[in-house]
């Protein structure tokens, strides 16, 4: 089972903060479990691993099998919480090079998460000569980036297969009853899956939003949900026996002690997009009302040769949360070189995991001695079950953390600011006055 360890934390937080914070954590726990806190209408994820829609889950598995049978590629169109979780899981469990590997499952391409013409064209070219399907993910269907991308890929499908046959290759994950995408899907007869009203995008990876692409890549989504259910049961225990309590309390106290930056680190490059998912989860949930830790990430050991200098000797603004994924799926042993020109024969015969773990421990000692606190999150390995535990752990700790900060961890009002300006500058009807005002500022 996932565990949280605090390395030499008493040298950074000498006071017994756990006891002092316990009453506030108990209140936060109650808010999450009952949905009685700010944003409580969006806490459907708390009991999701137990209460998820079993009928829809079966349809997700059936759709994944159909896509695996009739498509060489799946194009997933979505932005933010509509793609980061799925990509993180696929990269972590299947490989960041998933699309380059020989396999019996389709390639999975993620698009609609930006506004690059080059990225759109490249993905259109990649699927031009293969059979492909599209999973468009949007609660409303009007979010600019995925809506624009979907126009291109719907057109490509209809040109390739004809309108009727194209419709059999479009899967819409959207609102259960309303919105532009739901209305279009119903009119065209596309298969639909639900973005639940009670679960916000950044908490939605264990819904159809993430599960369909993840299943298409061949990941056992039953095991993924099973791991999340295990962690849900652990987190229902309102005490410091819950790793989410320990993590939320420690990062909150480090923040209060003058460390406003959290670096999420992992020694496996496959974790990169899980870190991106984590950054959205914590950045959108905590960063409001002038409060919140700034979530950043590093890939070790690569970033020890770039960011390592600042972490070791720069301004003491940060702490590290290090995810240890456990043993690699396969093992390599360092070969012996008779000439030993690089002086590394002392490592000959050693497994790569041994070298990685000693690098991890050496870095842990160096950074803590250099004044950077470290929280260690130990997962059970790179399996669907272990990753399900990790996802739920981070989500639950995020909810607790938001309530400790006295913010609503389930809204994101600041995200709308750039959209209003973008719509005005693009000439969207109804924004004419704002357009003139913004253009005047830009032309000063």
Structural features, described:
The chain has 444 residues and is of the alpha/beta class. It is 48% helix and 12% strand. It has helices spanning 17-34, 48-51, 54-70, 84-94, 117-127, 144-161, 163-167, 180-188, 208-216, 221-235, 243-256, 272-286, 308-313, 352-369, 384-404, 415-426, 432-442, and strands spanning 3-7, 73-77, 107-111, 132-137, 170-174, 191-194, 261-266, 294-299, 318-324, 374-378. The strands form 2 sheets. Strands 1-10-9-7-8 form a 5-stranded mixed sheet, with helices on both faces. Helix 8 links the parallel strand 5 and strand 6 (191-194). Helix 4 (84-94) runs parallel beside helix 9 (208-216). It is globular. The mean pLDDT is 96.
Q: State which percent range the strand residues make up.
A: 5-15%
User: What summary fits the major beta sheet?
Assistant: 5 strands, mixed
Q: Write the H/E string, N to C.
A: EHHHEHEHEHHEHEHHHEHEHEHEHHH
The tally of beta strands, per DSSP, is 10
Strand order of the largest sheet: 1-10-9-7-8
C-alpha termini separation: 58 Å
Mean pLDDT: 96
What does the overall shape look like? globular
Secondary structure category: alpha/beta
